[in-house]
Amino acid sequence: MLVCLNVMRIINELTASAIVYGLDELGLKATVGNTHLGVEDFDNRMVNYFVEEFKKKNKVDIGGNTKALRRIRSACERAKRTLSFAFDTIIELDALYQGIDLYSSLSRSKFEELNMELFRECMETVDKCLIDTKKNRSCIHDVVLIGSSSRIPKVQKLLQEFFRDKDLCKSINPDEAVAYGTTVQAALLSEDFKKAPELVLLDFTPLSLGVGRMRDKMSVVIPRNTTIPAKMTKRYMTAEDYVTSFQIDVYEGERTRATDNNLLVGFIFLVFLVFRMVIISIDADEILNVSS
């Protein structure tokens, strides 16, 4: 069966999930994220733990065996989900390496111990977001959980403590919030849906956009949390006179070093003057345009 989709607009996940709880006008105040922290980091801590445990018990290092690591990672992902509602679980893998089995238990407390540093980084990110909005915790009405990692009990507990025992919103499946919000936005844009809610959506850039400068420095052109569509210009000077061309690499992220951010695209521009302007624009669909 052939299905044709009419793509009317592209929105990011944060905006889509926020639409679920939007009123007449939805304007996101700030977004903060850690592009170097994700679900895989929790899994990596667990995988490393079991690799070391297997090594201690059997005097065999499986750190370089791709197949064994893949099996352990799959088991860790299942265990992580189980520990969201259970206090302990069993990791059992037959003939993991050279006919040796892996059989071990993992408690929720051990899982939290392995990942406590990462949980604290999550809370630091929440704190940075509040700082950007220039609001204190008492001004927050609702705390909405989105994404599978929000099911981790320790994450929920730390969030509740951070917001001074405020109840967390769990009225919608965290795995479905993005799809639900996207559906609402599609209804708003479609003429076929007459009962769609009245909602004005003000989208934004979740990460800063800029170019790499000399000594690997990130020069921000469009700061994060800028309402889109947006178009900004920045003037740069070539390092030497009479060069005929130079390359501009466009990054997204908040790190000081350009190469620590996500490289989007690179361009080679012809130079006719000493000073050149770099123009970066992003439309309502978050489509990036770069010119000089």
From TrEMBL:
<keyword id="KW-1133">Transmembrane helix</keyword>
<keyword id="KW-0067">ATP-binding</keyword>
<keyword id="KW-0547">Nucleotide-binding</keyword>
<dbReference type="InterPro" id="IPR043129">
    <property type="entry name" value="ATPase_NBD"/>
</dbReference>
<dbReference type="InterPro" id="IPR029047">
    <property type="entry name" value="HSP70_peptide-bd_sf"/>
</dbReference>
<protein>
    <submittedName>
        <fullName>Uncharacterized protein</fullName>
    </submittedName>
</protein>
<keyword id="KW-0812">Transmembrane</keyword>
<dbReference type="Pfam" id="PF00012">
    <property type="entry name" value="HSP70"/>
</dbReference>
<keyword id="KW-0472">Membrane</keyword>
<dbReference type="InterPro" id="IPR013126">
    <property type="entry name" value="Hsp_70_fam"/>
</dbReference>
<feature type="transmembrane region" description="Helical">
    <location>
        <begin position="263"/>
        <end position="282"/>
    </location>
</feature>
